[in-house]
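BUG-248 | component: ligand-complex export | severity: low

The export step for LXAUTJHC jobs runs without errors, but we want the raw record kept on the ticket for reference. Input record follows.
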Amino acid sequence: MPTSAPPPIEYDPPSPGRVKFNAYPDADAWAWSCAVMLAASLRRDLAERGHARLLLSGGTTPAPVYRALSKAPLDWDNIDVALVDERWLQPDDPDSNARLVRENLLQNHAKAAHFEPMTRLGRTLDEAVASANAHARQATTAAVLGMGEDGHTASLFPGARDLPRALSSKSDYVSFDASGCPGAGPWPLRISLTPLGLSKARERLLLVRGDAKRRLLDRALDSDDASVMPVRIAFTTPGATLQIHWCP
Ligand SMILES: O=C1O[C@H](COP(=O)(O)O)[C@@H](O)[C@H](O)[C@H]1O
């Protein structure tokens, strides 16, 4: 894989300060640049602590970044990979976020990483949440977030009854019932990272593609209500500056 990222196109977001916006001309430059940046963060934690931990989102956007990152020659034996959120599906279900991570990141060099799926045969939802919270006691190198077309991030959906509880939770992960939210598709039952869980990540990336999502992002940056635009937690939660990586 390349060792340095091409320079992103500069752009001033409407809400500067807690956000850095990086735009790339195409998906290849975007994927390789994100992979190079993630590899650098992992390498830094491996050097400083002998261990690194990566939190990954699912959905339709991040696979090219994960495939590029899988080729990074890192000490993957000492890297834990976990999920930002999961649909209440078995880990080998084709629609699970775990399957996406397995098929795209846990290949090539990254095959040696230690992966923590949230769901497991025979595990109840409460047990899965407890296990995610237990793992979350370890320091997190970077959290990779996505944004749905309804402004959700992780599995925090606008309009869901569970959203206020999740946004103010004192746990890193919660169960989340998104029944009635069209953006949750056929998987309303979820486990999600909370703002508290996100605040512990040393680095924070938001991967976004396409013009419609860029317009949505501008609306989220301008809005002041995380219950309408949950993606706002990505830059309003105390902690690391949000690095947004966008391409057409
Ligand atoms: O359901 C989910 O959606 C979001 C956004 O996905 P995308 O398909 O619009 O990229 C994703 O970040 C999250 O991990 C996933 O569970």
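Assignee comment: Attached the raw record above. The mean pLDDT is 94.
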